[in-house]
Amino acid sequence: MTVGVQENPREKLVVNGPDEFKKMPEEYQNLVIRQMLVHTEGELSGADDFIQLFYPMTDDPYEKFVCCERGAEEVDHYMRGAKILHDLGVDTTFMLKTPLQERQLYGTEAVKDINTWAERGFFSFLGEAAVLEQLKEMLESSYKPIAEMAVPVIKDEKVHVAHGYRIIRDMCQTEEGRAEAQTALNRMWAVALDVFGKSDSERSKLYLKWGLRKYSNEEARQRFIKMAAPKLEALGLTVPDNIKGRKFL
Ligand SMILES: [Fe+2]
Ligand SMILES: [Fe+2]
């Protein structure tokens, strides 16, 4: 199915690649590029998080190994996004030249600021889990190269999230560890919920209209809360307020 399917709204829009993309309205083109720019920069910053922030934080050789492996995978995810953009004539090498702290596209601040090992655990257990939910929406993207990209990236991200869960679960084995985890959670809960963006975002509505997203920002956030809150409670943690500390409301 190709361009022009809007004539029959019951048929799902599929834009197979750059040639069909060029025939799409400007609104669609701009949305695909914006979505991919944000996603691709986020992946590169993820790589830098593992290498620059988390790697020096730990004295555990296995955790250092994990940081290196994750760093490599996040760079791979960056390259996959960069390829999609390159094929649309958009160059992303500027991202490689911009230091982590100066990148402006990806709105979640915690990619630049993780201070404790418990926060590192939640970065994966909650932060990467929030990104994973967005990737699952991309599986059904109307732009086929995005849907195809999401498959291998999701496979990696599931492992990243599971490791974050293990870090927090192990920490919660002692009273002291659980208190540390709770302190980190009190900050990182808002960070994870912010990954979904502003509730009244106009762009979010356009992503839905063009089949580039499946849920609105707020719907996606509520789904995430429903999924994550029971897991936190099962570890004896208290789920913080859903509004407090949020940057994007
Ligand atoms: Fe990633
Ligand atoms: Fe990841």
Describe this structure in words.
This protein has one domain (16-234): Ferritin, core subunit, four-helix bundle (Ferritin). With 249 residues, it is mainly α. The longest helix is centred in the first third of the chain and has 29 residues, at 26-54. It has helices spanning 18-22, 26-54, 61-87, 93-97, 117-138, 144-171, 175-194, 202-209, 217-234. The protein contains 9 helices and no strands. Bound molecules: fe (ii) ion (FE2) (2 copies). The site of one fe (ii) ion (FE2) has 6 residues, from helix 2, helix 3 and helix 6.
Q: How is this fold's topology laid out?
A:
Layout: H1 18-22, H2 26-54, H3 61-87, H4 93-97, H5 117-138, H6 144-171, H7 175-194, H8 202-209, H9 217-234
Helix pairs in contact: 2-3, 3-6, 5-6, 5-7, 5-9
Bound molecules: fe (ii) ion (2 copies).
The site of one fe (ii) ion has 6 residues, from α2, α3 and α6.
